[in-house]
Amino acid sequence: MCINWLNTEQILNLTGTRKGEVKIGERVQTWGSDGLESLEAFQKNGARFCLLGIPECIGVLGNHGNPGAQNAWEAFLPAFLNVQSNRFLSGTEFLLLGEINVMELQKQAIAVDTTTGYFLQKMHVLCERLDVLVSPIIKSIIEAGLIPIVIGGGHNNAYPILKGVTEGLGLRHGVHCINLDAHADYRVMEGRHSGNGFSYAKNEGFLDRYFAFGLHQSYNGENMLKALDIAENVGYHFSEDIDYLDRDLAKALEFVYDRQVPCGVELDMDVIRMMPSSAISPSGFSLEQARQFVRRSAEALDAAYLHLPEAAPQNDLESKMVGKSLAYLVTDFVKALNKKAQS
Predict the structure, then answer these.
(1) Which residues neighbour 58 within 8 Å (Cβ) at sequence distance 6 or greater?
(2) What residues does each domain of the chain span?
(3) Tens digit of pLDDT for each residue in 190-231?
(4) N or C: which end of the chain has fewer CB within 10 A?
(5) What is the Cα–Cα distance from 150 to 323, expressed in whole angstroms?
(6) Distance CA 150, CA 102 (A)
(7) Which pTM value belongs to this model?
(8) Does the domain made of 3-342 have the CATH classification 3.40.800.10?
(9) 221 Cβ contact partners less than 8 Å away, ≥ 6 residues apart
(10) Strands (E), the chain
């Protein structure tokens, strides 16, 4: 696998130890720890979730966006590792795998002259190459019985994640998915980028039921809305039409719920008000509402994975904000699934 593994020493260097306290960074499992060097071995050793970073902005650039999504994984790590290990969350349920090695693709993307007429086409080609890296890793994680939690990068990675989950589970018609997002990311299949991950996945049989929740009326094109209208097993709800979040979200969860087919949980970080991202907005959900979405989704569904893309911190303050926000969302997801498993 094309992964830059994280070892115990690297993780402890990011963890601020303190007498009388235990941090998650002191409890997470890492590649090679305890002599374990297969995903299946970690699953047998008590790991349930596999944390994976994708430090890239290729798909975002290919969708006329701004760079920065490559920084989210690095911002997440210290915030997450310094969460307290306590009665609510141990940390031993995590395998902290590392990041997909996308350095060469990322370098090529940044080096392309944005003024050339071939810029977008080049990004689309690089995004396709990124897909080829991501999907087999997700498939391996699923086959090992672990739940992927994918941090960073653009929303283009929804496609290879859905593909990897579908192939890992051996599903005939694809996995289901709910997406909290200001944009449906169901654009025309004009070449791969962050705006068409779900349309590609749907077209190629890796996505069955899809619900986009919290869309902004003014930032989803009419052609895309028409495509959503005619697509089979696809639903959406605008943020402007939300009267009671719990009630409206319950309807969305009911749309994708299936006892036989797991459901992916997607949360585009630009749906959170003033979150540093390529599509930062003054209007959106609060972090508390985003956390509620993650918890409710984990409680209601047979969650196949959690994907948190599009955060794009550009300085120290933004990195701290992004890192801690991602840490809250990840721990909420895991706590909800742990609680459900114990009930």
Answers:
(1) 102, 105, 106, 109, 123, 126, 127, 130, 154, 156
(2) 3-342
(3) 999 999 999 999 999 999 999 999 999 999 999 999 999 999
(4) C
(5) 14
(6) 14
(7) 0.97
(8) yes
(9) 187
(10) 3-5, 29-30, 49-53, 94-100, 147-151, 175-180, 207-215, 234-238, 263-267, 303-308
